[in-house]
Write a sequence for this structure.
């Protein structure tokens, strides 16, 4: 017994010792509890599961959007926003326990080997997926896989007696965030954005250019049901509409100072009438865009009050690939309105949309009441707007409850409407393709006939939906529109679907009514500008923004950073100035210039600086070198929203980090920073501030392998967004200079929207 007591005492002492290095008493208690359970509990326990449940329980005490996700959930969560995944490239629907190909992705791996719309995939690598009650998730896991890997598919094709076998080489498959873009009426374009992902801004610009060629002057931007996404994507989209230095959004939290995001003034739709469609499921990034447009009186918001998700989450990556998304700040519109709705009681928060319906808010605008304390005014016309939860539209459009019935809802819930269209298209695909060679012909002439409606009713009965004549007649116009729209989707794409269904959408109809009847300009107090300002107060003209460098390719190997300046002289690589004083309160401008080149495997950088004082306090990588005499290089090497900040003091000590925003950045591991070869004219020993005119240089050879979040094989022929800086936060004369101008109110280098371009020559 004495021996057991001694062992237990030793264990508890060790437990206490383990917790000594922790910060707070709460943290020490948590560590002691975990250690005790792991080492002293009578039965074997799963440490990972215990910790996960503890994290989940802690987060559940906070707000509704602070969450934990395991590694697999993180991967699934990020895929729709990154803009691509790796797989076989088909749009499909499960029909009668079989995977039916609706459309192969144009130019994708399945189309390249000859898989057609209407094919049924029955087996993957000789493993049956049809008729075995396999979940859609399990089927997708078999079809997806790393780029370059191969998968064998067994296909059943209508009109072919024997099964067909195809070997598909998986590839990157794009995920588009724009679902539709078309001319909805003469001179009016329509663009629907489904989510804010890494490629949203680029997709929008392409769509805008195409619509302008077709005569678009005004725009209806549809954000109905858009649940949000990347902050940078929302900023980039709002930038398309606003003038330079107009505030888009700002964030602020208990431990996060106010961070302002401004328009650059280079947007492609600063003129022309703009209407933004929203509803009760429009959230987060969508509310940022809607709030900015409304607050600057740039356009009209039409629909119903938005969701009210205005909390900023910082992703915190955990060692096993899992992630905590922790709320660190709130979003505020340019007029100072908080987007976030109250969340004191989570059960009420999650049921808020239902409560809005029950109290009549979705049907009657006069059911919505805001206290005067939440009143704000728009920036140009001074109109009254309210904060405290979501964006209230300028024109309210109620839900038309007369279009729906319980019978229709049951048909939708049981999948009868989709099954009806899938069967119809599979049976009549060739006939439809021959009759309607273009979508416009289909949209104009195709009618849902009685035979199809009879098939739908029969499918409903088979799925347990008892026929209700009154409910059927009440919802018949909507049923016909949905059937026709789904057929258009299966024959063409989602744009075809929305061109059909929008003819019945009350908010879309209201937007066109406003444009057609002159309400946009004539209503008192709602006179919206056709432009976005005259730019008289702009500090920078457009010719100074988005600077560009053609980065020369050097074909001989470079390994010695000390030899880099002479090599760049020999190759004729010229210098660029870092000379923009963006903030009047920091007027000091040291003389700074840089030059950049590249090889097959590295970026080459050389800085020359002359300043009134220098300091190199830090000699260990990933220290706060920005407080020293520091030069910096920020760049975006991919389209996934992640950018790098490489910062180097005058002694050659570097900091390298990556992430999608200023908050929550991940520092590079030592094996990445050690790859960067450096030379410093002042030597590499640390020293305190020397107040005297000093000229110094640093040269950096940055291998592509140092970009630890990406795999970069070559930059030949590519364009990178980037900016170059000089700073000295804690020097006797603090200063903050940039190569490409920055349009924020306070110093902030973490602003990818103000990056210029590096065009890498081959």
């Amino acid at each position: 017994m004495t021996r057991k007591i001694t062992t237990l005492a030793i264990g508890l002492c060790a437990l206490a010792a383990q917790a000594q290095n922790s910060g707070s008493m709460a943290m020490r208690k948590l560590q002691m509890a975990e250690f005790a359970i792991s080492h002293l509990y009578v039965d074997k326990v799963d440490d990972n599961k215990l910790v996960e449940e503890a994290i989940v329980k802690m987060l559940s005490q906070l707000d509704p959007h602070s969450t934990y996700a395991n590694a697999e959930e993180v991967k699934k969560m990020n895929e729709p926003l990154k803009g691509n995944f790796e797989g076989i490239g088909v749009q499909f629907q499960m029909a009668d326990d079989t995977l039916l190909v609706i459309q192969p992705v144009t130019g994708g791996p399945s189309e390249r080997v000859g898989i057609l719309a209407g094919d049924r995939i029955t087996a993957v690598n000789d493993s049956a997926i049809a008729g075995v009650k396999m979940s859609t998730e399990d089927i997708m896991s078999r079809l997806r896989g790393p780029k370059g890997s191969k998968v064998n598919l067994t296909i059943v094709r209508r009109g072919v007696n024997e099964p067909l076998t195809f070997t598909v080489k998986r590839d990157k498959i794009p995920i588009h965030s724009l679902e539709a873009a078309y001319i909805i009426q003469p001179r009016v374009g329509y663009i629907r954005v489904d989510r804010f992902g890494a490629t949203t801004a680029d997709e929008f610009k392409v769509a805008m250019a195409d619509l302008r060629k077709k005569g678009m002057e005004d725009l209806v931007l549809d954000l109905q049901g858009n649940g949000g996404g990347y902050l940078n994507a929302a900023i980039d989209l709002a930038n398309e509409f606003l003038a330079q230095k107009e505030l888009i959004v700002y964030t602020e939290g208990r431990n996060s100072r106010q961070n302002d995001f401004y328009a650059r003034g280079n947007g492609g739709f600063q003129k022309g009438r703009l209407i933004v469609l929203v509803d009760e499921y429009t959230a987060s990034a969508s509310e940022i865009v809607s709030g900015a447009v409304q607050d600057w009186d740039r356009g009209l918001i039409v629909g119903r009050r938005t969701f009210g998700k205005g909390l900023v989450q910082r992703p915190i990556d955990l060692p096993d690939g899992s992630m905590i998304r922790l709320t660190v700040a709130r979003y505020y519109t340019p007029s100072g309105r908080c987007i976030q709705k109250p969340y004191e009681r989570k059960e009420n928060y999650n049921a808020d949309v239902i409560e809005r319906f029950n109290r009549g808010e979705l049907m009657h605008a006069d059911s919505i009441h805001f206290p005067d304390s939440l009143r704000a005014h728009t920036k140009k016309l001074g109109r009254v707007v309210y904060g405290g939860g979501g964006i209230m539209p300028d024109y309210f459009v109620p839900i038309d409850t007369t279009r729906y019935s319980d019978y229709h809802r049951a048909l939708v819930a049981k999948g009868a409407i989709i099954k009806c269209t899938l069967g119809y298209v599979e049976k009549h695909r060739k006939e439809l393709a021959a009759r309607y060679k273009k979508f416009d012909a289909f949209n104009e002439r195709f009618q849902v006939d009685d035979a199809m409606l009879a098939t739908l009713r029969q499918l409903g009965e088979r799925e347990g939906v008892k026929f209700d004549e009154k409910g059927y007649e009440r919802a018949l116009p909507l049923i016909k529109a949905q059937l026709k729209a789904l057929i258009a989707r299966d024959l063409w794409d989602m744009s075809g679907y929305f061109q059909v269904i929008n003819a019945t959408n009350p908010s879309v109809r209201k937007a066109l009514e406003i444009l057609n009847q002159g309400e946009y300009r004539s209503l008192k107090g709602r006179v919206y500008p056709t432009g976005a300002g005259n730019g008289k107060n702009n500090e920078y003209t457009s010719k100074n923004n988005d600077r560009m460098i053609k980065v020369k390719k050097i074909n001989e190997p470079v390994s010695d950073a000390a030899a880099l300046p002479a090599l760049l002289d020999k190759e004729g690589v010229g210098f660029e100035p870092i000379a923009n004083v963006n903030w009047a309160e920091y007027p000091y401008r040291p003389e700074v210039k840089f030059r950049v080149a590249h090889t097959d495997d590295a970026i080459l950088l050389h800085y020359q600086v002359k300043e009134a004082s220098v300091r190199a306090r830090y000699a260990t990588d990933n220290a706060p070198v920005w407080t020293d005499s520091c030069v910096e290089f920020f760049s975006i090497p991919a389209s996934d929203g992640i950018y790098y900040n490489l910062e180097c003091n005058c002694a050659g000590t570097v900091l390298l980090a990556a992430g999608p925003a200023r908050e929550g950045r991940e520092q590079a591991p030592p094996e990445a920073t050690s790859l960067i070869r450096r030379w410093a004219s002042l030597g590499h020993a640390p020293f305190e501030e020397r107040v005297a005119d000093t000229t110094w240089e640093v040269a950096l050879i940055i291998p592509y392998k140092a970009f630890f979040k990406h795999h970069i094989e070559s930059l030949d022929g590519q364009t990178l967004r980037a900016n170059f800086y000089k700073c000295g936060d804690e020097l006797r004369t603090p200063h903050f200079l940039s190569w490409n101008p920055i349009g924020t109110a306070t110093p902030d280098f973490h602003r990818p929207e103000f990056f210029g371009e590096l065009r890498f020559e081959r």
